[in-house]
Amino acid sequence: MPLLSLLAALPVPEPPAEPLAAVSSGSVLVLERTSKRLPRTGDPIWDLRLQIPGQPERHFAAVSGRADRQTANRHRMGSEAPLPAGSYWIGAAEPLGRHGPQELGPIWIGIEPQFETGRRVLGIHLDPSAGRNWNSGTSGCVGLIHERDMRTLAELLRRNGTSTLVVAN
Q1: What is the CB neighbour count within 10 angstroms for residue 86?
Q2: What angle (nearest 5°) sits at the alpha carbon of residue 35, between those of residues 138 and 104?
Q3: pTM of this prediction?
Q4: Closest Cα to residue 126, out of 136, 112, 116?
Q5: How far apart (Å, rounded) are the C-alpha atoms in residues 139 and 118?
Q6: Do the beta carbons of residue 118 and residue 75 sit within 8 Å?
């Protein structure tokens, strides 16, 4: 089954019933491109930064899109480009289980753009191929490079009630 078909079956977060200021704990997740690249595949490394008031920032190395698609139209479905800049709602962390798509890792966190775009079925997940082979990178989601980071991020988001992701560039 193609990956896009598998992704279509994953949960999409519902917008919060209350305004974000009332729902969020004040914490925010920010995705920003860095000048670093994965050595073997050339994928740009993105910094996924969790900002929780009163705590040190936490950083997670990630990829978004494919190495050769970084300048593609970020609003077009199927472009394999990085996420479009803007704000997204963050859904709950969902375990994928042993029979889930291996390329998505063990956890899926759905994200929903708060702006008009042609992109859909977006999320944060592990990229087990990051820096290893031709499948390195994502079809446009945020792919964490290290599994322990994925598990840590999911727990921190749950514990802190973080409901907003901002893609900075």
Answers
A1: 16
A2: 15
A3: 0.84
A4: 136
A5: 14
A6: yes
Angle at 24 between CA 49 and CA 56, to 5 degrees: 35
Of the candidates 81, 90, 114, 105, which has an alpha carbon nearest to the alpha carbon of residue 12? 90
| Strands 164-167 and 44-51, sheet pairing | unpaired
Backbone angles phi, psi at 70, to 5 degrees: -65, -25
Q: Rounded to an integer, what distance in angstroms lies between the CA atom of residue 131 and that of residue 147? A: 14
Rg (CA), the chain: 15
Average pLDDT score, the chain: 86
Average pLDDT over every residue of 147-160: 94
pLDDT surpassing 50 at residue 66: yes
Q: Residue 62: name the closest of 1, 153, 134, 133 by CA.
A: 153
**How many helical (H) and strand (E) elements, i.e. helices and strands, does the chain have?**
3, 8
pLDDT band at 11 (very low <50, low <70, confident <90, very high): low
Closest by CA to 81, choosing from 96, 70, 67, is 70
The upper half-sphere exposure of residue 115, i.e. CA atoms within 13 Å in the direction of its Cβ, equals: 13
Q: How many Cα atoms within 13 Å fall on the side-chain side of residue 169?
A: 8
Do 8 and 120 touch, CB atoms closer than 8 A?
A: no
